[in-house]
User: Fold this.
Amino acid sequence: MRTDLSVVIVGAGLSGIAAGLSLRDAGVSVHVLEKSRGLGGRMSTRRDEGWRFEHGAPHTASFAVLREAVTDVTRPLHISFEAHVQSLAPIAAGWEVRLADGRLLIADTLLLALPAPQAVALLDRGHDERDAAHDSNAGDGARAVATPLRNALAAVQMSQCWSVMFVVDGVFDPSAALQQLGDPALVVLAQKAVGPGVPVGSAWVAQMGAAWSAAHLEEEAKRIEQRLLDALHAVHPTLGVPFVRAHRWRYARVVHGLVAECLWMGDAAIGACGDWGNWQEVGVATVVESDRAIASGRTLARRVLAHYNIAAIRHA
Assistant:
């Protein structure tokens, strides 16, 4: 039984945090890497000009429990933010993870908890030129060792989403106003607490549908923001909109996932988790996206613990 296992998790979204918490609770040394300034994916919170928006996804009960656990100051989860992974390489001791700022991390096990296309790109990416000059085979290391996992992730298909956060001064009809955008799949989410003294109904997030987002994917954020303002003012000409920000999610939702709940290659000490897991049938998922992501991360953690014969702490 291993008592000194170290794990690096790339991605601090729902699945990565779920895996990290399960491993931490079992006594494993966990280091989560997240390229953003805060929790990623569906756990994302946008703070701008005093406003706060939960613009990742609608929350579920499982989501709330997970967020509370990760912010527990009595048992902190080790997360490095703004940590951009430059390359991965299998080594005798496990995995070498090189960050863009020059840091080099070594871990027994590597877990990928980022969108499947990004995980594939990371596995395909070789060492930088400095490393390749010393080892002509360095560029193929991660890809060669993890080929089955990489090829499985390559089958995952994802759609894009423009998410627009805005604040209004006054009452407005979101359905009538945002119909002007011509997106039948648009979802409008009222935000609860976005700032001190801000009345409910002032702050909103508009999440555009996949087809609309794909059609406007390469537009500048300012152009998307102007489209929303034009739509609002077409129905409410005098409505004040003191704040508007658009965010482009290139990998927003899974449209084709995997039957497997997670992926684990014990011989290579590498695994992957995400909301692509437990995908049942043709474009229809039987489980809420956020719950699928959490279940995938926890299942992967159990696979890791079983591989190293470490007792798991069961979740309620």
About this structure: The CA atoms of residues 35 and 82 lie 4 Å apart. The first helix runs from residue 14 to 25.
